[in-house]
From TrEMBL:
Native organism: Talaromyces pinophilus (Penicillium pinophilum)
Ranges annotated as biased composition (Basic residues): 20-31
Bias-annotated ranges (Polar residues): 1-17
Protein name, entry field: Uncharacterized protein
Region ranges (Disordered): 1-48
């Protein structure tokens, strides 16, 4: 029995040792105690970062001291690393904030902060309108003789005079019925004034649209089902029935996107109107205007695939056109021209603003094409020779599929100084899904399944197409169609530091905004277009 007891004791001792908490657990508890009278370190309050620090510290101490038998010899645990402490401190505070914009995305906090910061009493105009004791203005208007009102209206421009005449019944009788309306209706010099006056009626006519060539409202014939059609398809798919539809002297306004594709002004009107009045009764969503297409010319050097996307920012329609074409390495000057210019009208295949001839845009595209790595000749000993030279110069292994880095000329974004348009020219590696005509199994064979990556030139264009009021009063539309000069529209002055590209991309991607320098597409402010000979 004694032996049994002793065995029982020893097993008890060993069992106690075995049940003794592990070193790491003791340290965790010590840390909890060292934190003071605060809450105990529990699983819920232990962050991943702190656990990681503890284990690292423990293994480090174990390695340094070698002896972990002595419980009292455990080194004091330092507080967590400063960066982690900082993160832990601010994590909760930043939880409801947008990472890029710093805006509060917690709607409850947002509403509360609004109610605290600005009271509803601060709205002066609201009080002004709601002031029931304010005397009505008719008597004050009637106190002036009609001749004076006519003198005032004669000094105003035609649009404002009509607005004044229609303001109320007293003014209408004083200024004479229809006198100013007739002035607006007659005379080509008042045509723009008439259009601007008619745009004021937009809100009351959701099922009509202002026709610019006729300067009158037409009834929309496909309400909510209007679709942009390609220009070259010769499909007349109009928004309304217009007598001027096929009049070549007075054509409807449209903006050229690429060969055979354009943006009619009616669609800019529809998209901006629906956004301005907040109802799809008035027009279309900007998302419904986006299109994708491919275009190649017989004898051309490649097929261009183009995609468009639209977005409305501050009531103006922004457009992005991405044009892409696979390019062979080491193209001679003729090959580059064949790839970039259409043989039909000698415009670029990609989307460009009317000022493309005046700047460095085409030079930049040609420079970007030069950066595509040329595959090396490996016949005979040339492969070994190249490898040897690479080793001497400390270069890595040559990779023909590497993403080429662009130079200081072709890497920055370019902005046209005379219209709100920005360009980004890139060389990218993309998958070529077109069947290879030189394939041993034939061009349309399904056996040739290998994934093929090739270098492609990608030209992205961002443009501001204006607010859709009228083609002349919308400065952005007029500039994009080349109807203004540098005095009337200077894009660097108007746009400032915030680029259209930045506004557009931040509307779709939450966190990444392209960080590129924006420089002028035409630093020397060259003009003349086709008359100069350096554009081709
Ligand atoms: Zn019309
Ligand atoms: Zn370059
Ligand atoms: Zn331009």
């Amino acid at each position: 029995m004694p032996s049994n007891t002793s065995t029982g004791n020893t097993s008890k001792i060993s069992l106690t040792n075995w049940l003794k908490p592990k070193k790491s657990r003791q340290k965790l508890r010590k840390r909890g105690a060292a934190d003071g009278p605060g809450p105990l370190t529990s699983a819920s309050s232990t962050t991943l970062a702190s656990i990681k620090t503890t284990t690292t510290q423990y293994s480090y101490a174990k390695g340094a001291y070698g002896n972990d038998n002595n419980d009292d010899d455990v080194p004091p645990l330092p507080p967590i690393a400063p960066l982690q402490a900082h993160r832990a401190k601010y994590r909760a505070r930043n939880a409801g904030l947008d990472t890029q914009l710093g805006e509060n995305i917690d709607y409850t906090t947002l509403l509360h902060s609004m109610s605290l910061q600005e009271g509803f009493e601060s709205d002066e105009s609201f009080y002004y309108l709601a002031d029931v004791n304010r005397p009505r203005g008719e008597n004050a208007i009637a106190s002036l003789p009609g001749a004076i009102w006519c003198r005032i209206a004669d000094l105003l421009d035609a649009k404002t005079a009509v607005c004044l005449a229609l303001a109320n019944k007293t003014l209408y009788t004083r200024l004479g019925p229809r006198r100013y309306l007739d002035r607006l209706n007659h005379g080509p010099e008042n045509r723009q004034q008439k259009l601007e006056f008619l745009t004021l009626l937009d809100r009351y006519l959701p099922y009509h649209l202002l026709c610019i060539p006729c300067a009158r409202y037409h009834r929309r014939i496909r309400i909510g089902h209007e679709k942009i059609q390609p220009t070259h398809a010769q499909v007349l798919n109009p928004v309304f029935n217009c007598p001027q539809e096929r009049n070549p002297i007075n054509p409807p306004a449209r903006h050229r996107i690429t060969h055979g594709r354009s943006m009619p002004f009616t669609f800019v009107q529809l998209a901006t109107r629906a956004h301005r009045f907040g109802s799809l009764k008035y027009g279309l969503k900007p998302e419904s205007l986006g299109r994708r297409w491919r275009y190649s010319e017989p004898g051309g050097a490649g097929t261009w695939s183009v995609s468009t996307r639209y977005h409305i920012h501050e009531n103006r329609l922004l457009m992005r056109v991405i044009s892409q074409c696979f390019a062979s390495p080491g193209l001679p000057p003729t090959g580059k021209r064949l790839l970039l210019y259409s043989r039909e009208d000698y415009w670029p295949f990609f989307s460009a603003c009317p000022h493309w001839r005046d700047g460095e845009l085409m030079d930049v595209c040609k420079c970007a094409l030069d950066h595509i790595p040329v595959p090396r000749n490996t016949a005979g000993l040339q492969g070994a020779e190249h490898k040897f030279k690479d080793a001497i110069h400390g270069r890595g292994r040559f990779d023909p599929y590497a993403i080429p880095s662009q130079c200081g000329k072709c890497q920055p974004m370019r902005r046209c100084p005379r219209c709100p348009t920005e360009y980004l020219i890139e060389v990218k590696l993309s998958e070529d899904t077109t069947p290879d005509p030189n394939s041993p199994f034939g061009p349309s064979s399904s056996r040739d399944k290998g994934v093929k990556f090739r270098h492609a030139i990608v030209v992205t264009r961002w443009s501001d197409l204006g607010d859709g009021s009228t083609p002349s009063s919308s400065a952005e539309w007029a500039a994009c169609n080349g109807q203004t000069d540098l005095e009337q529209y200077d894009s660097f002055e108007r746009l400032g530091r915030r680029g259209i590209s930045g506004i557009f991309e931040s509307a779709f991607t939450h966190d990444t905004i392209p960080g590129r320098r924006i420089i002028s597409m035409n630093p020397d402010n060259k003009t003349g277009g086709e008359k100069r000979d350096d554009w081709y």
